[in-house]
Design brief:
The complex is a heterodimer of chains A (about 180) and B (about 325). Chain A is mainly α and about 180 residues long. In chain A, about 70% of the residues lie in helices and about 0% in strands. In chain A, helix 8 (about 120-130) crosses helix 11. Chain B has about 325 residues and is mainly alpha-helical. Chain B folds into 5 domains: about 5-50, no CATH class; about 55-90; about 90-120; about 125-175, no CATH class; about 180-320, Leucine-rich Repeat Variant (Alpha Horseshoe). Helix content of chain B is about 60%, strand content about 5%. Classes of the chains: A mainly alpha (about 180), B mainly alpha (about 325). Bound molecules: zinc ion.
């Protein structure tokens, strides 16, 4: 709170401390959402530039971290729409992704059966299964299970209905279970 | 509710998203339905396993360090007020216009910026003599020392051949003084963190380092720490680390060295950080569990052979005592 106020008054050191305090989560959300490290860094940078520009307008109506995560989700979602225009051949449309079980394998060659057999370690199996989810499913799954947000909070962040969030979570969970059924 | 209708409830309950009413309804069904009870147990153990094997909460350290450094650059551009600075600014392209303007009898409105390198309100107040770089009479400043930016046309000619425009001229200001002078330190630390040009940032750190600042000045120290952790240029980071080694070793410096050792992308800098920690071993805070934890991690995982060996050696040495 104190740091936020200082940063709002233009204290750059305070702003950087704020960044250090929140940026790991931002980067981990971003890194799960996109597949390349460069894209994750782009999202990270865009998020904190928006935080920097919008800081003066932050009115303490929510937790600072919630605000930052909401911006993160927004950036992820708009980033996605930019990427989709250029990567349509690889990314299936959202409307179909729920039904397309083969979709994960298309995007992530590391999910092949050989790799799975070699790598029996559960944590890395989970990591790989996450990699097989669609970006939105991954985002919801991450926010719910790793960041601890409630479904209605995620709906606000993603600017969609709670039912939609539920559907993403259901599908993500079903897929994860299928992928991991012999592991856990 | 149909049997399938309970599937949603099972999901919600297992992931902890169920309210009390829903839970009661579900519990009643579970008492009578073996299939749902089996499914429910599977789901719960699945979620328990997820929690037990939480993956990748912390992002990759190197990625984080890179992201921070890139953000630092972007913020520097943002603060300089030139978000697209590198995109359009080309002094060579503006210079001919500048000469043209000065060579003829045009109306000039000159805005002087105390400088991207010196834009410190307090410094400006303390040194009012810097505020007027152009003596009366409009003597032309050294052309190659003045940078012209933000050219803005007020009037594109009124059929008279005259035009009017404004621009910011940034002229280098010479400051001379002792490195112990807080004013000088302020300018140097500011340049160290905010200059666009890595060469200038390096010189600023150099100046502090070469003179062997004895200062306990908190701002200088924290600026050095920042430069070591965040500068995009490894030369600047290294020089900042060297300057920090001359300061009295304390908790802040220790933490900074640990962070550098953990996450700097450059092995040379990680080596320098481990050496700094090693030579501080005899000090009161030298070798606590924080340091040992990081060293153990480095001994096991650093991809640089020297660092793994060195980390092991320092641990051995420390635990022997
Ligand atoms: Zn049932």
């Amino acid at each position: 709170m104190e740091l936020v106020r200082k940063a709002q008054q233009g204290d750059i050191l305070a702003f950087e401390q704020l960044v250090f305090r929140h940026d790991k989560k931002v980067l981990s959300i971003a890194a799960r959402y996109v597949t390349s490290a460069d894209d994750a860094k782009d999202i990270y940078q865009e998020v904190f530039l928006r935080v920097y520009r919008g800081l003066k307008k932050f009115r303490f109506k929510s937790e600072f971290s919630t605000w930052v995560h909401r911006i993160t989700v927004n950036v992820c979602l708009t980033q996605r729409s930019r990427r989709r225009r250029t990567m349509q051949t690889l990314f299936l449309d959202d409307r179909n992704e729920e039904d397309s079980e083969a979709h994960g394998e298309i995007r992530d060659p590391a999910m092949g059966p050989d790799h799975q057999a070699v790598n029996a370690d559960i944590s890395s199996r989970i990591e790989k299964a996450l990699g097989g989810l669609s970006p939105k499913q991954k985002l919801v799954f991450t926010l719910r299970h790793y960041e601890g947000y409630k479904l209605n909070e995620i709906a606000v962040m993603m600017n969609c209905a709670e039912g939609t969030v539920k559907r993403y979570l259901f599908t993500a969970t079903r897929r994860m279970r299928d992928q991991l059924k012999d592991a856990i | 509710m149909t049997h399938d209708g309970y599937r949603d409830l099972l999901f919600l309950s297992a992931s902890g998203d169920m309210d009390a009413d829903g839970q009661a309804v579900l519990e009643r069904h579970l008492q009578t339905c073996l299939r749902c009870r089996k499914e429910y147990e599977d789901l719960r153990s699945f979620h328990a396993a997820l929690v037990a094997h939480r993956v990748g909460i912390e992002p990759d350290e190197r990625l984080l360090a890179e992201a921070r450094q890139e953000l630092r650059l972007a913020l520097r551009r943002e603060r300089a007020g030139h978000p697209a600075w590198s995109g359009w600014f080309n002094p060579g392209a503006i210079a001919p216009l500048y000469r043209y303007a000065l060579g003829a009898a045009f109306t000039l409105a000159v805005g002087f910026l105390l400088g991207r390198s010196l834009f410190l309100p307090s410094a400006a107040q303390e040194t009012p003599r810097l505020a007027s770089p152009f003596p009366a009479g409009g003597v032309r400043p050294e052309e190659d020392e003045t940078r012209i930016t933000n050219v803005h046309f007020v009037d594109h000619g009124r059929g008279t051949g005259e035009i009017e425009f404004t621009f910011d001229a940034v002229t280098p200001v010479r400051m001379r003084g002792s490195i112990d002078d807080p004013k000088i330190q302020k300018v140097l630390t500011h340049a160290m963190l905010n200059e666009e040009n890595p060469g200038i940032r390096l010189k600023a750190v150099n100046a502090i380092n070469r003179q062997g600042v004895e200062t306990q000045d908190v701002e200088t120290k924290s600026a050095l720490i920042k430069a070591m952790e965040m500068d995009a240029n490894v030369g600047v980071r290294k020089e900042a680390l060297n300057a920090l080694r001359r300061l009295p070793f304390d908790g802040e410096i220790k933490k900074a060295m640990l962070r550098a050792l953990m996450s700097d992308s450059n092995p040379g800098l990680r080596v320098a950080a481990i050496n700094a920690l090693d030579s501080a071993r005899t000090s009161a805070l030298g070798m606590d569990s924080d340091v040992l934890d990081v060293l153990r991690q480095k001994a096991a995982t650093d991809d640089n052979n020297y660092i793994r060996v060195k980390a092991r050696a320092v641990i051995l040495e420390a635990t022997r005592q």
